[in-house]
Amino acid sequence: MNEVVNAPLNLIEQQATQSSRGLLPPILLQYWHTALRWRWLMAGIIAGTLVIGVVATLLMAPLYTAKVQVQIDRQQKQVTKVEGLDAQTNSQDVEFYATQYALLKTRPLAERVASELGLYKSAAFLEAHGLDEDIMTKKVPGKSEAQLREEHKRRVVGLLLKNIAISPIRTSKLVDASYTSRNPELSAAIANKWASSFIALSMDRQFASTADARKFLEERLASLQEKVEQSERAVILYGSNADIVNLDQIRDSDGRTLGNRTLVGASLEQLSQALNAATAARIEAQARAGGGGDTTAEATSSATLAGLRQQRASAAAEYAKLSVQFEPEFPAVRQYAEQIRTIDAAITRETSRIGEARAREYREAQKRENELKAKVDQLKGDMDQQNRANIQYNIYQREADTNRQLYDALLQRYKEIGVAGSVGVNNIAIVEPAIVPDKPSSPKMSINLAIALLLGIGLAAATVFALEQIDEGIREPSQVEPLLGVPLLGMTPAVADGNLYEELRDPKSHLFDAYFSIRSSLAFATNHGLPKSFAVVSTRPAEGKSSTSLALAQIIGRTGKRVLLVDADLRSPSIHSMVDGSNEVGFSNYLAGENDWSHIVQETSLKNVSIIAAGPVPPSAAELLSGDRLAQFVKEGLGQFDHIVIDSPPVLGMTDAPLISKSVEGVVYVLQAGGAAVRGVKASIQRIRQVNGHIFGIVLTKVGGDAKGYGYGYGYGYGYGQRYGEEDGARI
Length: 732
Known about the structure:
Layout: H1 2-21, H2 26-37, H3 39-59, E1 64-72, H4 93-103, H5 107-117, H6 123-128, H7 145-163, E2 164-168, E3 174-181, H8 184-241, E4 246-251, E5 257-262, H9 263-290, H10 297-301, H11 303-325, H12 331-423, E6 428-432, H13 445-470, H14 480-484, E7 488-493, H15 500-505, H16 510-523, E8 533-538, H17 545-558, E9 563-567, H18 575-578, H19 587-592, E10 601-603, E11 609-612, H20 621-625, H21 629-637, E12 643-647, H22 656-661, E13 666-672, H23 678-690, E14 695-703, H24 720-727
Parallel strand pairs: 7-14, 8-12, 8-13, 9-11, 9-12, 13-14
Antiparallel strand pairs: 1-3, 1-6, 2-3, 4-5, 10-11
Helix pairs in contact: 3-13, 5-7, 5-8, 8-12, 9-12, 11-12, 16-17
């Protein structure tokens, strides 16, 4: 027994898991069950369309398609396009090829093909397109022979354009031209002639444009030649007036002047090099003049000093030898001592002479450096003045270079046009000519059957949808129990949206009386009287579910019982807005893990009625409701309140309502008169019963009024949070 009871529970939990993960939304299950109910009808419709497709294929005349492949290169003969004259439009490749493809299906091309192949008088051509040859000679009252001939020509051209297909090959310069008719030889002939005529027309357009292009370029050349002469004269005249003497010019590969080498600049360059050399010589002479006489390289390399030092060394050696043997007064010793003194004096004189020569050399080097500095400074001043003059000179020079460049380019293009006009350059070629097809291209049984299958499926779906729409909702209270098998708790009249809240708060209103009667009926639904906890559900949005929840809570509260109204419609909350409450925190916070729910309870102006708002919209409402916290909440809540009323989301398309129904005593099912289809209501009731949920009865709302919000139907689901609250006007 427990296994039987748990089976529906496991089923609905599995559906909730699938719905939360987005694997199999319940709306798809509804479509699947609908298809199963009408499966034989759908199978018959599909089978019928397939039979019709087979018969039509067998009765269709065979068609033959011949294909010719053409290569179209980017057009190179833009005869007036010169760099600097016309705008650069590299992005025009797409436009060029699109133009070529359009030209392949123009009427002049079709007329040329028809004329060259003699199709205007060809009976085989008409027969190849399912027309009788008598159409050429048929007389029509009120029309002359000339009019009939012109009409026949238009008919032939129309047939050609209708049966030619142009198919560009992506990422290539190739394009296929295919012609289809009942005659394979004629299809191949027309396809090949179509390509050759297209090439001929392209050549004709090129030759026709050559004369116009030459005339245009001749006028432009004359104008540019005059500009070149004027700009070059301006350069020469300004250079003469400003005393600018150019030795040579530096030009790039396009002939543009990059710089001028003037006489002043060349002189300054030479003087700068001489100044650098003089500065280096001065520094070297200064270094020699500042060093000691005996340690300089010049002193070391002097032949005279070297000889004197050698003589002194020899005399010093002899003096030392004799000093050991004889007294200082010995004649030979005195002789060598005198010789040493004489040599030392000679060395001193030679060293002094070398120092004076170095000083003189330094003074001369310094003098030359100063002279060159003065000349360089003078030339720098001249150079600055000339540079200022070169600014305007360069402007004149650039203008002359630009005019010369344009003139040379136009002259070159003018010569190219002359050659092209006599030779002709074609950028279109036939890559693969058409051959006579050996088998028909259509009809194809597989394709026709696929089309028939798709049409059959579409027709079957449309038929089933129409039949489903015939299933109207319940309009009379007497229909509730016979059709649904659920008792009727009561009904409420239709009330305008603007008067709904006022009617609920007025104990004398018809709406209040209706809900009071429903409360009385609900008191007999259990053995212990009014249910301690119950949920209010509906099939779809905008059926009066929330208004019923608030009305029952209000009426129960007026009897002296403490009532807690919980907004469990986490996807589209509305209860808080009806009692001027807040939705910053609410039931979703508790379900998400907050243990203390007392701080989310809000008092209202209604007698003995407190509410818990829905709170922030969670990522997955079904996941929060599938745990055991809801049942725990109901248990704890009944310890502080006499009754708990839960405003539940609609049933169709979601698992929230069945999950809530497991945690309360029962369910009050709200049904709009003339609203949801009976089949959808039965499916919703079955879903609640699958989880062992108890349904106390049906509340039929908006009886005798216009049933609003009917557009939801079976579509209640994941868009509910964005539409339900808005269309219902926060309807309670």
